[in-house]
């Protein structure tokens, strides 16, 4: 048995090393994707192009606009005369936000009746989130500053105006570095992508070339053939994990707070889950084109339903169940917990057990389907 498996292993390693272009692509693609996602994808939008319709033109209105600009989230690109002109600038794509300050702003501020209209381009999700949050925070800060100045002029103690002092402390990422949020998710995505794609492509390639029939006439059994084809992909996937973690720590300066060896062990279980999905795809697809389409569909659904972009606790129950069909669903909390939080296995046991069961079940189903497909 071991001699037959070793023979297939040698064949797979020789074939992999001989095709240096594909090997380089498999090893470099995760690193390239990590660079692209890390540097190109920025969900914390700054320098939003903004037009201003300042119909008051007094010291208070100038101070309010300056407060917006000083946050670096808004760049005033033009001053217009009216709200209609602001909307026109947003409609044309020249601006993504607009500020409308009504006449008599200073007097209204002194009476406590001032209002400012802030318009945001609602067709861009991340612009809406960043713009709305920052605009609301600046408005509250400006209002509090005006109120404190009034109290100081009246001679009352400032503490009388602040009955509640709410202090917020952000754990694990106090400076709210975006890469610290996204890199653990990206590592989960890249590992899943490489493990699924490699296995699906390898088996389908054998079927298209007709070499799989040549293997079947040998004494090797389907399960032995399966093990021989999976082991090289496991080795490449482990190298991809090491590359992704090294890039995250050394190039992106993301702190790795947890136990590295625990993370590698859990990553290996995660890789087996991805290899099982890839093997299932290989039994369904008849050619490389079908395999690529199925891989893209699985990756898209996994990204949407696995918690990569949207939190799973806000999803309907049916979508949560459907999301459990993808290995990334179980590994993202583990990656976040170990890399970002530095927690131990005890805090992640639910996700670890779920991921282990998933890997065993999907590999068993894939092995059975693979064996039936060969027989």
What does this structure look like?
- There is one protein chain.
- This protein is mainly alpha-helical and 375 residues long.
- The chain has 2 domains: 19-41 and 176-374, no CATH class; 48-161, abc type-2 transporter like fold, CATH 3.40.1710.10.
- The protein contains 14 helices and 4 strands.
- Helix 3 links the parallel strand 1 and strand 2.
- It is elongated, with a radius of gyration of 28 Å.
- 32% of the residues are buried.
The major pleated sheet works out as: 4 strands, mixed
| Poorly predicted residue ranges | none
Number of contiguous helices: 14
Radius of gyration: 28 Å
Count of DSSP E strands? 4
The computed structural class is mainly alpha
Q: Percentage of helical residues? A: 55-70%
Element pattern in H and E:
HHEHEHEHEHHHHHHHHH
User: What percent of residues are in strands?
Assistant: 5-15%
Shape category: elongated
User: What kind of oligomer do you see?
Assistant: single chain
Tell me the distance between the termini.
19 Å
Mean pLDDT: 78
- Write out the strand line-up for the largest beta sheet, numbering strands in chain order: 2-1-3-4
Q: What count of domains describes the coordinates? A: 2
């Amino acid at each position: 048995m071991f001699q037959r498996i070793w023979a297939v292993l040698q064949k797979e390693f020789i074939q992999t090393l001989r095709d240096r272009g594909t090997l380089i692509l498999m090893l470099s693609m995760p690193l390239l994707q990590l660079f692209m996602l890390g540097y190109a994808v920025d969900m914390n939008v700054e320098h939003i192009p903004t037009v201003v319709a300042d119909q008051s033109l007094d010291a208070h209105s100038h101070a309010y606009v300056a407060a917006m600009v000083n946050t670096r989230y808004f760049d005033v690109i033009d001053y217009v005369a009216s709200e209609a002109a602001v909307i026109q600038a947003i409609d044309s794509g020249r601006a993504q936000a607009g500020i409308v300050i009504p006449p008599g702003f200073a007097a209204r501020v002194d009476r406590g009746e001032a209002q400012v209209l802030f318009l945001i381009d609602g067709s861009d999700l991340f612009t809406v989130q960043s713009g709305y949050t920052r605009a609301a925070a600046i408005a509250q800060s400006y209002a509090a500053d005006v109120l404190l100045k009034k109290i100081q002029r009246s001679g009352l103690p400032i503490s009388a105006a602040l009955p509640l002092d709410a202090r917020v402390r952000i754990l694990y990422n106090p400076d709210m570095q975006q890469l610290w949020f996204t890199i653990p998710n990206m590592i989960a995505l890249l590992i899943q992508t490489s493990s699924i794609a490699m296995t699906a492509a390898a088996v389908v390639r054998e079927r298209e070339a007709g070499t799989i029939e040549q293997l079947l006439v040998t004494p090797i059994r389907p399960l032995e053939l399966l093990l021989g084809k999976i082991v090289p992909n496991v080795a490449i996937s482990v190298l991809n994990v090491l590359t992704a973690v090294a890039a995250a720590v050394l190039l992106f300066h993301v702190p790795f707070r947890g136990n590295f060896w625990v993370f590698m062990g859990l990553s290996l279980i995660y890789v087996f889950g991805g290899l099982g999905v890839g093997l299932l795809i290989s039994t369904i697809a008849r050619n490389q084109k079908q395999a690529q389409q199925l891989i893209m569909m699985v990756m898209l659904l996994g990204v949407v339903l696995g918690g990569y972009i949207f939190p799973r606790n806000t999803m309907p129950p049916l979508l949560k169940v459907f999301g459990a069909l993808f290995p990334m669903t179980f590994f993202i909390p583990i990656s976040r917990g170990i890399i970002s939080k530095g927690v131990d296995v005890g805090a992640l046991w639910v996700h670890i057990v779920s991921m282990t069961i998933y890997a065993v079940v999907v590999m068993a189903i894939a092995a059975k389907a693979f064996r039936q497909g060969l027989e």
